Amino acid sequence: MPWLRPPFLRALLDRLASDQRGAAAPILYGVLRPLPCAVRVAAVRARNPRREGSMLALLETLEVAPLAELAWRPFDRDGESLQDVDRPEDLAGPVELPVRGWVATWAHRQVSGQTPGDPGGPGNPGDPA
């Protein structure tokens, strides 16, 4: 993940440290993304001692603390930290992952001075799950 920003990584580690779950992973557009993520080695060894399967399969065996999009967008506006390289043409550079949906609505309210409120949503402030 060549465009991973240090503050993004710090936010993942802080999220993991503030929670007892086995991993922390970012939310993008309301969906948990498997990479980048932070995992507790002890949790991986306990749940997947043979170290088999994909990263997504591993995260499915662990309880994951979500890193809200509102938590990482301030220092990675275009979502570059979430992009990896799978093919040589991916090295041309990251593709912008624009702010959209309820996050865009919430951001607009913040900028326009409307009552901020809590945007809610999966893995975000106010989400009871």
Describe the 3D structure.
This protein is of the alpha+beta class. The chain has one domain (6-97): Spore Coat Polysaccharide Biosynthesis Protein SpsA, Chain A. The protein contains 5 helices and 4 strands. It has helices at 6-17, 41-47, 55-61, 69-72, 101-112; strands at 23-28, 31-32, 38-39, 64-67. The model is unreliable at 114-129 (pLDDT under 50).
Q: Please describe the biggest sheet, giving its number of strands, its sense, and whether it closes into a barrel.
A: 4 strands, mixed
Oligomer: single chain
What is the count of DSSP helices, taking H or I runs of 4+ residues? 5
Superfamily (CATH H level) name: Spore Coat Polysaccharide Biosynthesis Protein SpsA, Chain A
The structure class reads: alpha+beta
Q: Just name the CATH architecture.
A: Alpha-Beta Complex
> Beta-sheet strand percentage?
5-15%
The mean pLDDT is 77
Overall structural domain count: 1
Q: Summarize the helix and strand pattern as letters.
A: HEEEHHEHH
From the alpha carbons, calculate the radius of gyration and give it in angstroms. 16 Å
Helix content: 25-40%
Q: What is the overall shape?
A: globular
Q: Give the strand tally.
A: 4
